[in-house]
Amino acid sequence: xxxxxxxxxxxxxxxxxxxxxxxxxxxxxxxxxxxxxxxxxxxxxxxxxxxxxxxxxxxxxxxxxxxxxxxxxxxxxxxxxxxxxxxxxxxxxxxxxxxxxxxxxxxxxxxxxxxxxxxxxxxxxxxxxxxxxxxxxxxxxxxxxxxxxxxxxxxxxxxxxxxxxxxxxxxxxxxxxxxxxxxxxxxxxxxxxxxxxxxxxxxxxxxxxxxxxxxxxxxxxxxxxxxxxxxxxxxxxxxxxxxxxxxxxxxxxxxxxxxxxxxxxxxxxxxxxxxxxxxxxxxxxxxxxxxxxxxxxxxxxxxxxxxxxxxxxxxxxxxxxxxxxxxxxxxxxxxxxxxxxxxxxxxxxxxxxxxxxxxxxxxxxxxxxxxxxxxxxxxxxxxxxxxxxxxxxxxxxxxxxxxxxxxxxxxxxxxxxxxxxxxx
Length: 424
Description:
Helices cover 13% and strands 43% of the residues. It contains 5 helices and 29 strands. Strand 19 and strand 20 form a beta hairpin.
């Protein structure tokens, strides 16, 4: 929903007829002019291109990027009324490390909001993503995904090897952080935004071991027991870690407790059943959501408390797998096999209700929430390709962020970074 500031602009037209027309138009994309003011600077133009791309990605705005030499009077602002009801002015006037942005109602020429923005000592594109996040929230009251990353597996169909990649939220600026000579699966980010890592599982001749790497490709082992070592889940503050291990037989979930002083860390078993227990996610209250087939061999989605007690099922029917939890919206997404195709389902923890958000005849699997909770990334497979797609829950639109030249799987979204890491 768009914030009151935009609604006020839309409803400021006096005639009832005009009001209805504008409200009807609002159900489409909102025109927005973004203008750089004053002396043209290449870095500012590059940054605003990123802002325009980010706001366009939301599906809520139709952005026009321009430059103006001066803007002194209300009449200057009103000149933009035929282009759009909103004018966003960005001015590099407080030094190379800062700027001001101001939002105007072009019908009245009045300023609605104005803020200063400090540019961090990072790449120009990172400035742009951060600025877009601030502007998007001011306009809509919704957080955007712009200051986050996505990790995923990338496979050449002709080779039996996997690249573990990271990219910006829209699939651009891809960087390979681990190039494997074998198969890798299920990469994910840790919860530490100051020291970000990617963890993934790698097939060996003896087991599936859990590895970790920083963004520069410096790898190390995280867990190397017999059998499966995979799918670590982190609480929001990073204090809780749950992982899937099968050293004792079938796949079970364990909570890892780090050692204090000279003591070694230990794994505390949470599940103890005859099924396979996979895909854990830690919720805000410490409860754990996961997938298991312990009841009748048919995978379903369950929740339990942090000690493995009070187990309850939240899915029904079909084959339900790969739950993903959003702390922002208190919702759980998962895949369910319906009429031969895996579809994305969303369970609302507050309403205790489930909705199906995809319906087409393709397989959608391994969904992951954006940190803002407004987008889902998942792997979409048709007879010819396996690509990554993002579902916008605000507009119900789907955007592909990879092409069909490689096979992409196991996408996972990062936390929101205070300063977006540079991928170079």
